[in-house]
């Protein structure tokens, strides 16, 4: 999918049911704060282990099921892969080039950053953002333990990305964009930080039918 400015969008979508909650019935700032708090609480727990929090395979088994290369998954230490809860594989649609700059939206404990760094090599850079402090702390420690000095992780709990315009060759995301109550703003920011001709490669879940307004505003529904 070609976007204005020459950006390419390549997606791996898993339907779940329901309308895009960032459109239609408005969500108040108070409700957004409550939603973000519930999401942070869930992923605080996931930062310890993803087991038991999702209805699909997670961790090492989940990564292999989603088509990540066995060589990469097998080499990943347990402390890195135990919190992996991706819904797809953002690396399947196209290559990450050696020396490129990559941004991971919702980087979690850093598994996809580790994978991206295996493609960019040390001549490239990989930045990650996440809204959960515990995940950011774990990702920083994980990537430091792996000696990936070209990877940096940032705590960002809004849709505003702390990067200059046209900073990245590729933006990836795995099961995280759906958690934003302001998706239009987030996509605007993604395209702002992408270079001309850059690529957005993401895997996510979508809603394929309308939801009642009370469900759209439910912090429990957003964090399940």
Automatic annotation (TrEMBL):
Organism field: Desulforhopalus singaporensis
InterPro entries linked to this entry: Arsenite_MeTrfase-like (IPR026669), Methyltranfer_dom (IPR025714), SAM-dependent_MTases_sf (IPR029063)
Chain spans, region Disordered: 1-28
Compositional bias annotation for Polar residues: 19-28
Keywords, sorted A to Z: Methyltransferase, S-adenosyl-L-methionine, Transferase
Any GO BP annotation: methylation
PANTHER family: ARSENITE METHYLTRANSFERASE
Recorded coiled-coil stretches: none
Family, per entry: Belongs to the methyltransferase superfamily. Arsenite methyltransferase family.
Domain of life: Bacteria
Name of the protein described by the UniProt record: Arsenite methyltransferase
